[in-house]
Amino acid sequence: MTWSRYEVRGVAVLALTGKLCAATVLTVEPEVAWLLAGERPVLVMDLAGLETCDSAGLAMLDACDRAATTAGIELRLAAPTHPVSEALRARGLISRLRIFGSVDGAARADALDLLPATHPVVDPG
């Protein structure tokens, strides 16, 4: 698990790369805590580099959202890979957390870029 910090449109972004799992959540939690202790009203977590996210990783994302709310910060998740998106959906987090299709959409809080809580209906015809 690695991570990096950058800004998009003046919003702090934490990009996660690798596997967010029981073996790695404790390495990234201090970085998230540090960012949540800052002065910024929004934190975007860029999930585009995540290969996988197990139940411990999902629990960490859920806990980060609760900690952000307590700190008066809005947490926005962005660009989850298909496996991570499916894990979020299976755990019921996709309907509760603010998850955007792109980092730019998350930085702008673009409602059109929010991921749907359910699978999109595919028209076979």
From TrEMBL:
PROSITE patterns: STAS. It comes from Planosporangium thailandense. This is STAS domain-containing protein. InterPro entries: STAS_dom (IPR002645), STAS_dom_sf (IPR036513). CDD domains: STAS_anti-anti-sigma_factors. Gene3D superfamilies: STAS domain. Residues 1-110 form the STAS domain. The lineage of its organism: Bacteria, Bacillati, Actinomycetota, Actinomycetes, Micromonosporales. It holds the Pfam family STAS.
